[in-house]
Amino acid sequence: MKKIYYILLYMLFYTVSTLFIALRVKDLDFDPIFFVMSLILPIFLLSIGRYLSVILSFFIFLIIEFNIYIVLMYHKTSFEICVAIAGSPIDDVFTMIEAVPLQVFLSVIILQSLLMFITWKAAFNRPKVAAVSLACFGTMLGGRILLKSDIGVEDLYKNALVYDHFKKQFVINGDAELYGYLYGLTPGYLGITLTELTLALSYNTGHFKSVPISLKGHDVTDPVITSKNTPKVRHIVMIVGESDSALHHNLYGYRDYETTPHLKNLYNQGQVCFIPKVHSGANLTRDAVPMLLSFYDADHPNKLLKEKNLIELAKDNGYITYWMGAQEGTNVYGSSYGFLGHFADHYLMPHDTNMAYSLKKQRDQMLLPMVKKEFSSLDKSKPYFIIIHLMGSHTDYIARVRKEDVKALPTAGSYNQAIHHTDHSINEIIELSKKYLGDFTLLYSPDHGELLRSPDLGEHGIYDGGYDQYKIGIYLAGDNHTNYCQQAETLRSDNGYFASPQNKYLLLTMMGYGVSQKGLDYIKSHDRVVNSGIAFDYDKIPQPKRKKQ
């Protein structure tokens, strides 16, 4: 086989694979002229001699294959995904790698072997060609910088809010705009990879401009709040779940397995009520959790930084506040809710605490003994607002499962077993509240749902994943819990759904705050969500493409 055929095969794979990625970059328009010009790069790679060509091509194609896998998983790639990859804690990285099917690794090994063989056959040593192609590529990139256009990356502030591990405080990253620019500079795998590397290097070395954020409290209260009165509930417990789909909860109609036996029994005994027909405010944790506990919404994300959140409001009305979570809040991805957690009088997150003990791993089974220890030491004559943030049924599901869950549901799959564990956790926290708090109301709400591909494999944050990743279950327990389930009915949007961000108005009522009916009516008539980083009307979020029959 002649060398020219190997060169054509190399160019064909590079062109098709990079075009596949470039056409699926969210937030940016495809630039055909720039894409054609970018094909100068593989010419450079082939002209530097066999050994260098094979080494560099190995890493380039590995990056391309990784980006293809991300696109196949999420149907698009985005700046949000770049941040998630660059800023996820190491525990999450390992569990996500463990969740990748074995056939994917085998496919990559086979494909890489084939591509290295083609590269070896196609490569040639032409220093002048290499120099000219590299100069052309550099000139093209320089022209791109000079002729840059508006990138249009939404909610850049979320990526500006980070925890500086060197200064030990939350800051506004002055280089955030730079990362967005790098993302838009070279649409496709080059820009994505450059953005991820820059994000990871800057956050892990502390090499970025930063402005400290004060955690002493905000001066601005959202105008929807009209008055502050005597609290109606002495002790409020808010449990935030993770990737917990109502489609797999018994009280929401799931019949295949007894995934939530405790909640079902408590409901039958009149100790728990649930809110039907619910959807989450977002399909990603970093958006969904702030929507539960601040006035951040799809169209006003900057309220997270500008207005009092629910922890501040609780403190203003006399509550002692806690944030106890199994999810890291000081990594890049978790900074939006880690920021909220730091407003609490007492906070505990993996590798980050101002309490007497620390949490080393993102495991609910490690968090709950600490919750029990703290509850047992509380002075119940004082009012408390306690937030408990679970890992719940976050992928990799098997990492969230106990032996007891497998024994109870041996054939159910790891996702159902993880929900069984969450059911146990909720029940345990309810029992602790009864024993140590007495007068309490508890609210459980997940951040978002999950798209199940199989009993052991699922995902969320999919741009065109549709409604399943929004379907969640919300439960209330404790004193007067039925009153708050009834109040929830008055907070339904005009389309008939109760949106999880409306939870804040239940919590505010418990805390003794009055809320403007006019403000609520406006919110109810605008059911808006954040779908993979972009604001949508809930009934207009992108849906999965139907497969042709």
Automatic annotation (TrEMBL):
<keyword id="KW-1133">Transmembrane helix</keyword>
<feature type="transmembrane region" description="Helical">
    <location>
        <begin position="7"/>
        <end position="26"/>
    </location>
</feature>
<feature type="domain" description="Sulfatase N-terminal">
    <location>
        <begin position="235"/>
        <end position="458"/>
    </location>
</feature>
<keyword id="KW-0472">Membrane</keyword>
<keyword id="KW-0812">Transmembrane</keyword>
<keyword id="KW-0808">Transferase</keyword>
<dbReference type="GO" id="GO:0016776">
    <property type="term" value="F:phosphotransferase activity, phosphate group as acceptor"/>
</dbReference>
<feature type="transmembrane region" description="Helical">
    <location>
        <begin position="32"/>
        <end position="48"/>
    </location>
</feature>
<dbReference type="InterPro" id="IPR040423">
    <property type="entry name" value="PEA_transferase"/>
</dbReference>
<dbReference type="Pfam" id="PF00884">
    <property type="entry name" value="Sulfatase"/>
</dbReference>
<dbReference type="InterPro" id="IPR000917">
    <property type="entry name" value="Sulfatase_N"/>
</dbReference>
<dbReference type="GO" id="GO:0009244">
    <property type="term" value="P:lipopolysaccharide core region biosynthetic process"/>
</dbReference>
<feature type="transmembrane region" description="Helical">
    <location>
        <begin position="94"/>
        <end position="117"/>
    </location>
</feature>
<dbReference type="GO" id="GO:0005886">
    <property type="term" value="C:plasma membrane"/>
</dbReference>
<protein>
    <submittedName>
        <fullName>Sulfatase-like hydrolase/transferase</fullName>
    </submittedName>
</protein>
<feature type="transmembrane region" description="Helical">
    <location>
        <begin position="55"/>
        <end position="74"/>
    </location>
</feature>
<keyword id="KW-0378">Hydrolase</keyword>
<dbReference type="GO" id="GO:0016787">
    <property type="term" value="F:hydrolase activity"/>
</dbReference>
<dbReference type="InterPro" id="IPR017850">
    <property type="entry name" value="Alkaline_phosphatase_core_sf"/>
</dbReference>
